[in-house]
Prior knowledge:
alpha+beta; 7-stranded mixed beta sheet; 5-stranded mixed beta sheet; 9 helices
Amino acid sequence: xxxxxxxxxxxxxxxxxxxxxxxxxxxxxxxxxxxxxxxxxxxxxxxxxxxxxxxxxxxxxxxxxxxxxxxxxxxxxxxxxxxxxxxxxxxxxxxxxxxxxxxxxxxxxxxxxxxxxxxxxxxxxxxxxxxxxxxxxxxxxxxxxxxxxxxxxxxxxxxxxxxxxxxxxxxxxxxxxxxxxxxxxxxxxxxxxxxxxxxxxxxxxxxxxxxxxxxxxxxxxxxxxxxxxxxxxxxxxxxxxxxxxxxxxxxxxxxxxxxxxxxxxxxxxxxxxxxxxxxxxxxxxxxxxxxxxxxxxxxxxxxxxxxxxxxxxxxxxxxxxx
Length: 322
């Protein structure tokens, strides 16, 4: 089994594991069942409560040569300030009191019966990370809106002239880490942004408005995303349905070479149709596309050093990016 690198160890799940926090650990584990980005991407505290302020370096200092007894000019970098806000995702669950009372372990039973709700929250979370609308106060700008123009050097089109079609998909390639791309959680949170609150025994109503005793729980996940290095997130857009596995691999390799060096983890996110094409390509391009195990021992397809993860919130009905 591969060894966990520093970024793998900083995922929300690993932080909760180290903190010996069973309930947050279970919530994170359920969330990542429907949001595979949580498997690889580390989570760090926001540096200003529920807002994270990042300085993206747009121009790097290059220095200059000098000769003996002669000085050099001052150098400086240019930065742009980015503010990323944290979204609050909430849900309530109601579980029949008799089911809980017969279980012998109230908290474990409540979590077990609420698993479907938390998994659903994972889907909403994944959708916001990818498709979030920054104009909505309750959301933040997702990766689609941050990489939405071919004028952006971090966006690559799979076809030269996509026209006005609306049956395309995308792949996101991410260099992962504190100085690259990572998730956020509120400053001071000791549960990495998630919690469950027991709201006690209440009178619930069924579909016919008949009452029954139920235990009510409140679930919450607070999260955001940060792109500290602009080239840490690359988007391959305008991918048609009929693209071949070989063409996909060529695009991914070209995009990978444009990403920053030094990250300890690289991953790519796409929907199931792209995953199937890449799995098939692994049979023919074993030197570039291959199957392996991730640091947790789960089988995974890789393109070079990119872990291929599935996120079905990335659809096949995207409009052409121009």
